[in-house]
Model the fold of this input.
Amino acid sequence: MSITNTTAEIPVSHSEDEVAFGFSELFFSRTDERGKIQSGNTVFQRVSGYSWQELLNKPHNVIRHSDMPRGVFWLLWDRIRRGLPTGAYVKNRSQDGRYYWVYAIVTPVEGGYLSVRLKPSSPVFCDVQAVYAEILACEAKEGLSPSQSATRLNERLIDAGCRDYDNFMAMSLLAEFQHRSLILCQGIPAAITSFNDLMTSANKLLSTAEAIADACNAYRFVPLNLIVQAGQMGSAGAAIGTISANYSMLSQEIQVNLATFFEAARRVSMTIHEGAFFLATSMVQEEISVVFENEPVTQNVDHLSEATKLRHQLTRYQAKAAENLRGIQRELKQFGEGTAGMKRLASGLAAIRVMGKVEAGRLGTTVLNDLICDLEAFQEKLNQGLNDIGNLNNGLCFNADQLEKLHASSEVGLRLDPSCDAAKV
Done:
């Protein structure tokens, strides 16, 4: 599976078994803490095919489709019960047996949960359908429990290049947001584009940090081997032994700092992906609030109360998105300081290695020269990695500053070209 944000030809289903609804149609439902439906909008009622009397106070799984892996719902409920907003692709079943796919954004609200859905269309959606079919087959063949199925799903997403489910949520929601904007002739907000750049750089940042860790691990015994060789040379190897011991101490310090350094890189990536999800969620919630306020009042839904709840949720996630932007800047500042510290250690390591090279050249032994060459190779990988990380961090800081300016100038909202006839899509 290839998780990507690139634009591809929009897949069109010609199945007569699929419920048709437009890309411009958002819908929502609100449940209590047990998952029983308390309210929703007219699009939800129409697409589900049930009357309000058949929906209200019924478990939300009344629309569950048998093609859905149980692990998806286990993961979703595990997250939202812990207060974590969650995005997931879901195949639902209408009252007459037809199906419809949605990308659902489920967030905790007072007394229960709010699920806002949009019609998926991105290349990620195509990939996920294949993964779901694979997981569903594993559930049947291996008798996987829901939690085991969720674990298998996470493993499959990691195989596809996603570091975890939070990473997948941010990538998939932004992919759907962008693809839908193109279909509806909406301008893609600059903040979404900036977050895409941030996520790409954050992934590279983590990969580079991992490469540095791998290099440290691969060459960790070289200084020890140098000390052993120096010891075998007696008094002639005393100088190289001292140099090697100093090198070993400094490389061990780097190894210790590496754990903190990598954790800082992980926090940067996590905060950026979380921010992308919060931002896109707040934009979708803003749109559903407007959509619902313009809907005609129905007898079975307290329109004013639901509109208030939607607006309250919108305010919450706009605040979360704003706080996250500040969090990104804090994490980047701390990570930059950690990178500078690693560079200082690397410089000290380089100075000791040069002395070792001079001494090894004086002694003229092949083994020592080979070991010094290994140290040079490690030093090169370390310096290159730290330079790459420094450049990535500078780019991340720039994009984060741009996002902060966009937020301050209130340019993160949706833009729609009213001349576009979305009904033709």
